[in-house]
Write a structure and sequence with these properties.
Blueprint lengths: L1 E7 L5 H17 L5 E8 L4 E9 L2 E9 L2 H24 L15 H6 L2 H10 L1
Parallel strand pairs: 1-2
Antiparallel strand pairs: 2-3, 3-4
């Protein structure tokens, strides 16, 4: 799995990058079709926030969270991402065991009675 870590007003140093990658690799083992995750670290006055974006089974998933420290924000974002992926996986698998409902439409009696093949041949041969 490809993990891209970038920072906005924060330097994404090796220590922070390794924390993000170790948390996301656990998710990658659970969801093998997950190919790419982009993580953006942001720092504003007293609030640190982390945003993670990915595409899973054709659906774009984006989660973000805030915390007092960057580690808290990373941990919360990882949990939110795992919950969002779990929900998407459940939606994809929910339709597997449902029975297909096929409704047959009955033809109205009027259409069947309007055109009688036997009457057509008998009227043509008698003329």
């Amino acid at each position: 799995m490809d993990i891209q870590v970038s920072g906005h007003h924060v330097s994404a140093n090796d220590m922070i990058s390794s924390v993000v990658k170790s948390n996301l690799e656990k998710i990658g083992q659970r969801y093998p079709s997950l190919v790419n995750v982009a993580v953006i670290l942001k720092s504003e006055s007293k609030v640190r926030s982390v945003e993670a974006r990915t595409i899973y089974e054709g659906s774009s998933i984006s989660v973000s969270s805030e915390g007092k420290t960057i580690r808290d924000a990373i941990k919360t974002t990882t949990k939110k991402l795992e919950m969002a992926l779990s929900k998407r996986k459940g939606l994809l698998r929910s339709g597997r065991n449902e029975k297909l409902n096929v409704e047959e439409e009955a033809m109205p009696n009027e259409i069947e009675n309007d055109y009688d093949i036997d009457d057509q041949y008998t009227t043509e041969t008698t003329k």
